[in-house]
């Protein structure tokens, strides 16, 4: 143990309040998040992983994060270690990564490099290194580029994967086998089980295995289990309010991968709020469609009546009534999200976004009358091209739409402020757009070209330049991040093949990584990814065990 690590971590650990009891078993597990501490502790998925692992008494669970700029020098001189005890990661039995975003796969490589853990599976398995398992939303995406890195992927619901994995591992750990034998056997055993994918067995070149993704009826909803001020939410206790989405937008994986829409019971949400209220007065309701919760008005009202500061993510104006809008306007949360996606109503319909121009204008006018002054509006550029409309018209139509909406709202109140978020369309696996994307033709050629993201960036700049009203603000957007995301989703070779000593000697921003990837255009083809990526068969009920 190097106490310098503990001293560095103290700036975070001294501000943590634990809401669960930690386990102290004989099997050492490191819950790893492939980003910095502040991002990790803002992720409900990571809290869920940490809480669920700690519910098993056979395990001793610690955490690890991507080191920040202040700690990287010490890590480079030594090794990446755990947050709690500064134990080198190579000394754990299992490293369980929670990966929320595909771009964080690169951070996984950074962490393994810093931990001095080999990228190649055969070297790890024969050398007695920890078993590497990946879960989280990114496990549904293009994992081909990470086949060599992870021994197992846990796909889908944590209720169906974590307990099954721990049961299997603890059984093998008591058999007297050495770590390498245990790792080989658990990979073999879980390779045929529901919700697991083992690349060494089922991920060969050209193969496409079907993974049964079971979604148990009994859901354990995620919640904050470690309170800290060092997150973007700053001591706000978060609780998963809904899972899945009532919308089935064709560009989004949530409605396609997380089963039917389900909601956390109001009684369970309020019980958690009562449990955490001695430690914080800040509560956050999270989920992809929180405003669609059938009891959201009652939950919000009762929480507010307790003098607690409550906020909600994903508030969709067309899903809530005037009563809740008025309560929102009276609280600190005075903004409403409107995911317009496209200025063209026809394009919105083609994406299954059932929201007419009249609905948008009427609902936002209603919100202004109820006291809402701030609106965040989302657009996706590139939808025109996908659905065969003239892409050159997309920027102009978007400018006209926002201008018309702004003029209408300003007639209601001169205090109106619009925050516009514009993102390029990146077509991801497990979405309807990915499945129906043409194999050839003008659009495929445009999307596959190096001009795709730059063209959409120029449209964005045109929109931002023309809309310079004092009450309109644009969210910062780095299109290099989108280019990187697109490359990762189209990569069908080992991701670590691109880097060598990159993590030590090169800049780490998205633009520099994109330049490296552009040097190997033959390594990226969405058609080959679609052919080789495992198929997912979604169903409800108990998961089946492996062979």
Rg, please? Answer: 24 Å
Low-confidence stretches: none
How many runs of DSSP E, i.e. beta strands? 19
Helix content range of the residues, please?
25-40%
Counted by DSSP, the helix tally is 24
Largest sheet: 6 strands, mixed
What characteristic shape results from the CA principal axes?
A: globular
Termini distance? 40 Å
Which structural class do you get from the secondary structure elements? alpha/beta
Strand order of the largest sheet: 3-2-4-5-6-7
Strand content: 15-25%
Structure, explained:
The chain is α/β, with parallel strands linked by helices. It has 24 helices and 19 strands. α15 packs parallel to α17. The longest helix is centred in the C-terminal third of the chain and has 19 residues, at 394-412.
Keywords:
547 residues; four-stranded parallel beta sheet; 19 strands
């Amino acid at each position: 143990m190097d106490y310098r690590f503990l001293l560095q971590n103290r700036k975070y650990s001294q501000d943590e309040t634990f809401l669960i009891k930690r386990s102290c078993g004989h099997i050492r597990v490191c819950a790893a998040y492939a980003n910095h501490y502040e991002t990790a502790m803002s992720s409900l998925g990571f809290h869920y992983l940490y809480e669920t692992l700690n519910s098993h008494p056979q395990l001793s669970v610690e955490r690890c994060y991507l080191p920040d700029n202040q700690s990287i020098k010490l890590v480079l001189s030594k090794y990446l270690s755990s947050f709690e005890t500064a134990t080198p990661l190579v000394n754990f039995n299992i490293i369980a990564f929670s990966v929320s975003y595909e771009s964080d796969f690169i951070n996984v490589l950074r962490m393994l490099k810093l931990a001095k853990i080999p990228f190649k599976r055969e070297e790890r398995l024969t050398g007695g290194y920890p078993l590497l398992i990946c879960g989280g939303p990114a496990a549904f995406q293009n994992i081909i580029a990470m086949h060599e890195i992870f021994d197992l992927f846990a796909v889908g619901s944590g209720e169906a994967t974590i307990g099954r994995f721990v049961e299997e591992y603890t059984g093998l750990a008591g058999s007297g086998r050495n770590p390498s034998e245990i790792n080989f056997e658990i990979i073999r055993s879980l390779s045929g089980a529901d919700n697991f994918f083992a690349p060494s067995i089922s991920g060969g070149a050209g193969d496409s295995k079907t993974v049964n993704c079971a979604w148990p009826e009994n859901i354990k909803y995620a919640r904050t289990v470690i309170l800290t001020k060092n997150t973007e939410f700053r001591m706000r206790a978060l609780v998963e309010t809904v899972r899945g989405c009532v919308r089935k937008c064709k560009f989004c994986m949530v409605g396609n991968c997380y089963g039917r829409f389900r909601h956390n019971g109001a009684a369970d949400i309020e019980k958690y709020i009562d449990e955490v209220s001695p430690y914080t007065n800040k509560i956050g309701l999270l989920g992809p469609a929180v405003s669609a919760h059938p009891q959201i008005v009652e939950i919000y009202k009762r929480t507010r009546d307790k003098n607690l500061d409550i906020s909600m993510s994903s508030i969709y104006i067309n899903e809530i009534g005037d009563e809740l809008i008025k309560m929102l306007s009276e609280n600190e949360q005075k903004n409403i999200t409107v995911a317009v996606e496209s200025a063209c109503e026809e394009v919105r319909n083609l994406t299954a976004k059932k929201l007419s121009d009249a609905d948008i204008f009427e609902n936002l006018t209603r919100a202004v009358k109820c006291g809402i002054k701030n609106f965040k509006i989302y657009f996706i550029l590139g939808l025109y091209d996908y659905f065969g409309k003239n892409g050159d018209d997309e920027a102009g139509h978007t400018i006209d739409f926002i201008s018309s909406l702004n003029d209408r709202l300003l007639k209601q109140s001169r205090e109106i402020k619009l925050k516009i978020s514009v993102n390029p369309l990146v077509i991801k696996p497990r979405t309807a757009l990915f499945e129906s994307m043409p194999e050839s033709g003008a659009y495929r050629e445009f999307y596959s070209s190096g001009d795709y993201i730059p063209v959409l960036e120029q449209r964005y700049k045109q929109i931002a330049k023309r809309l310079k009203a004092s009450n309109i603000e644009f969210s910062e957007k780095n299109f290099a991040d989108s280019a990187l995301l697109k490359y990762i989703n189209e990569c069908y070779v080992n991701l670590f093949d691109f880097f060598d000593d990159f993590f030590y000697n090169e800049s780490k921003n998205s633009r520099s990584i994109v330049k490296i990837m552009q040097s190997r255009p033959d390594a990226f083809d969405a058609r080959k990814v679609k052919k080789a990526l495992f198929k997912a068969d979604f169903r409800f009920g108990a998961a089946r065990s492996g062979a």
